[in-house]
Amino acid sequence: MLSTLIKGGTVVTATDTYAADVVIINDKIAAIFGPEASPPGPWDITIDAVGKFVMPGGIDVHTHLDMPFGGTTASDDFESGTRAAAHGGTTCIVDFAIQPKNNGGHGSLRSGLDAWHRKAEGKAAIDYAFHMIMTDVTDDTIAEMGRVVSEGVTSFKVFMAYPGALLVDDGQIFRTMQRSAELGALICVHAENGFPIDILVEEAIAKGHTAPVYHGLTRPEIAEAEATHRAICLAEMANAPVYIVHLSAERSLDEVVRARDRGLPVFAETCPQYLFLSDDDLARPDFEGAKYVCSPPLRPRHMQEDLWRGLRTGNLQVVSTDHCPFNQKGQKEMGKNNFAKIPNGLPGVETRLSLLWNSGVRQGRISKNRFVEITSTAPAKIFGLYPKKGTIAVGADADLLIWDGDKRHTLNHANLHMRVDYSPYEGVEVMGAPSHVISRGKLVVDHGQYIGKKGDGQFVKRATFSYI
Ligand code: URP
Ligand code: ZN
Ligand code: ZN
């Protein structure tokens, strides 16, 4: 038996803030003592949390580790990516397994899921779960969805973007939604209309517009808004809940707000890149803009405040990262003469909590409780991890942060732990970082030192959707 006492901190959950000592026995939270009570002892480990916040570990429900994409593979695998996540205070990720494409044909969901288990097993530093990306929808894959859900993979992603690669058509999306309504699964949608985008891309290249800035100019906001609207309509027709991933812009948010005001079970996340970066970054000279190529693209700076409004009103429930890193050297460079060949994606699994704390909590945009809600509790509830994860309660997994809200540090790729040769936030000074990170009862990060080991993380089976 391993016993740990977290002493003298202020517990912050999505709903409450109070002074308490937290006791961990093995991998679970075993007791919470108010200031008037004295926890017995002795303890194997005592962590001094005086002056700090004790919060549920971050849950990042949108990562792409070791993912083949855009003619290359995301540079973080499950070992480096989950270790970096732990450094930043994230104790659970939900990564996207992919139904493979073999020689132009499609593999089974089974083979895709097995491949993702092999990528993660024995490597992860923190707990992990999977969504399943469906790249083809047939009678066989519809039948397979039930099996996948029974194995704890209770959400699927479909793409309205990337024709010829990941896109599935509206009929296929509708079928997955109908089936997910039967199974209690949740469909996540990448909402951008890939067909007009591809035409705009072709036209731009034909005119010699090859620089990274044209990535943004050929993926206009309306392509995202239209697809968001269509995804919501398809879900309504199928009587299914839907979750819009990486929402980037005001008009897409308007679609979500309208649907939610009509009482539909529509949910959406945004990501730090849309809150903190803008199309000015895409326009950086000397191919620096390539570092900021992701889809949907970065938007005009004024839209950042729309996304903060969405987070405050609850129309956006989650901030995840869409962590999908590619090195500038050798990977992003593939698009040196053609922006359409730049692999899409940004690193961010390590920097999410510090950025949000600094600009959200410290700058008065959201409360501490809302910070916990959007980074941990709501993702846990929406994706079937709650109450095992996403809160501080007796019996929950001891995934905990001791959070130093005043810790000042500068984001810099050399000091970060993601396996990628740049940070989109290079040189940005922030306040807020974990002094200790505890993953299922084990101290894995102690004052910036990683003391866990690969394979500490376990696959987590998720429950079906019940968050209305
Ligand atoms: O640019 C992005 N978002 N890359 C990752 C794949 C996706 O669409 O989520
Ligand atoms: Zn996507
Ligand atoms: Zn993604």
Question: How does this model look, in words?
Answer:
This protein is of the alpha/beta class and 468 residues long. 31% of the residues lie in helices and 24% in strands. It is built from 13 helices and 21 strands. It has helices at residues 78-88, 109-120, 139-150, 170-183, 194-206, 213-217, 221-238, 250-261, 272-276, 279-282, 303-313, 352-362, 368-382; strands spanning 3-12, 17-25, 28-33, 45-48, 53-56, 58-63, 68-69, 72-73, 90-98, 101-102, 105-106, 127-133, 155-159, 186-190, 242-244, 266-270, 318-319, 400-410, 429-439, 442-446, 449-450. The strands form 4 sheets. Strands 1, 2, 3, 4, 5, 18, 19, 20 and 21 form a 9-stranded mixed β-sheet that branches. An 8-stranded parallel β-sheet has the order 6-9-12-13-14-15-16-17. Helix 3 (139-150) packs parallel to helix 4. The chain is globular and about 70 Å long. The two termini are 38 Å apart. 57% of the residues are buried. The model has no long low-confidence stretch (mean pLDDT 97). Bound molecules: N-(aminocarbonyl)-beta-alanine and zinc ion (2 copies). Residues 64, 190, 246, 294-295, 322, 324, 344-345 line the site of N-(aminocarbonyl)-beta-alanine (URP).
